[in-house]
Structure formats: C-alpha cells, structure tokens
Amino acid sequence: MDDPLIGGPQKSFISQERVPDWMLPVAHLAALGAIRFSPDAPRSDRIRHAHGYLMAISLNQFGTSFVKGIVGRRRPNEEAARALGRRTRSKSFYSGHASNTFCLATYATLYAWRRTDRSIVRAAVPLALYGAATYTAWSRVAEHRHYPSDVIVGGVAGSGVAVLLFRWYDRMPVPAAERIAVGPVPGGLAIAVRF
C-alpha cells in the first residue's frame, strides 16, 4: 500500500527510541511475576491467572502480527529511513508496542482489583500501568513510527484481549482441594466449603 489509511506525508527518521524494544519483555516478566507471586491470592488463582496472562500476551502478539501482515500499512518514517540507508520491514498498523502495553495494563489492573481490597494498590496499579502504556503509545507517534490511529487501535485491541482472557480465566472452576478449608476458631475448628 502506498498511502496510509489515516496519516499524511512521510516524516523524519528518529533513531533513538524512548521505549526500546527490550523493555517490553522485561515489563511482561515483571507483570507475570507480580501475578504469580502476589500475596493476596490463593495459589491456584495465581497459577491460573499467570497462565491467563501468558495466553493474553501470546494471543495479542499473534493478532498484532496477523493484522500487520494483512493491512501492510507503511510506517510514517519509512522513506526517511530508506534515505538514511536503514532497512525497515515492519509495518505500521496497528502498534505492537501500544497493544502490548495496554494488554499488560488491563490484565494486571483487573487482577489487582479482583485480588486486593487495599485502596492504595487498587489506585496505584492502574495509574502506573496505564500511564506507562499511554506514554509508550505517545512516544511511538512522537518518534514517527506510527500514526495516531495505529496506537489507538493497538490500545483498544490489547485491552480487549486482556479483558476477554481475564474473564475467561477468572471464571474457571476452583480446584476441589481449595473448595474446602479448615481453620482454627476459639474453642475448636471451623470448616468452610466454597460452592
């Protein structure tokens, strides 16, 4: 495709990225560790949602690559990169950085809201993660690597995948071993059964 669906003329090439590619896997590992080792959730929930998070980022990455391959929209700085002798094969629509960071922010926020009653955690997690995701999306446009529509669609797609996978994994049945709990109470033991 020679003309972008939404965009404009080619823009200058900026070599230094504000959010380099290596930061995405590091952020995903940190989010996975926070979900897997969170102190406020039963072990089965942590394992189930760690698996759900891995599935969400995998499905999100597949969807991003699939759509980029079909649409094939050029990046806003492709001609400028070629003029400098840099080869660019990646496509613009939709932003993988935006979809990845919004997928991370949405899944981790839903998990934090579900698993803790601490108001500081419930406020800080979305503020920090959505702030980082928004900064990442903005930086992709500011560096002429994406059009605004690329990051908007990427953010919506990543958030949508995260919501769907979180709800699916959150509704999985609790293992039988964790449905029954026995604990001490004054004067004896109590048995609690979850249905």
How much strand?
5-15%
Unreliable stretches (pLDDT < 50, length at least 5) are 1-7
The major pleated sheet works out as: 2 strands, antiparallel
Structural class: mainly alpha
Kindly give the count of domains. 1
**Helix residue percentage:** 55-70%
Helix-strand pattern:
HHHHHHEE
Strands in their spatial order, largest beta sheet: 1-2
Bulk shape:
elongated
Oligomer: single chain
Distance between the termini: 55 Å
Q: Over the alpha carbons, how many angstroms does the gyration radius reach?
A: 21 Å
How many extended strands? 2
Mean pLDDT: 79
The number of distinct helices, counting runs of at least 4 residues, comes to: 6
Describe this protein's structure.
By secondary structure, the chain is mainly alpha-helical. It has one domain (23-193). 59% of the residues lie in helices and 6% in strands. It contains 6 helices and 2 strands; from the N terminus they run H-H-H-H-H-H-E-E. The chain has helices at 23-36, 43-71, 78-83, 96-115, 119-142, 148-170, and strands spanning 180-185, 188-193. Strands 1-2 form a two-stranded antiparallel ribbon. A hairpin with a 2-residue loop joins strand 1 and strand 2 (188-193).
Key features of this structure:
two-stranded antiparallel ribbon, elongated, 6 helices, single chain, mainly alpha, 195 residues, 59% helix
Q: Topology, please?
A:
Blueprint (H helix, E strand, L loop, with lengths): L22 H14 L6 H29 L6 H6 L12 H20 L3 H24 L5 H23 L9 E6 L2 E6 L2
Antiparallel strand pairs: 1-2
Helix pairs in contact: 1-2, 1-4, 2-4, 2-6, 4-5, 4-6, 5-6
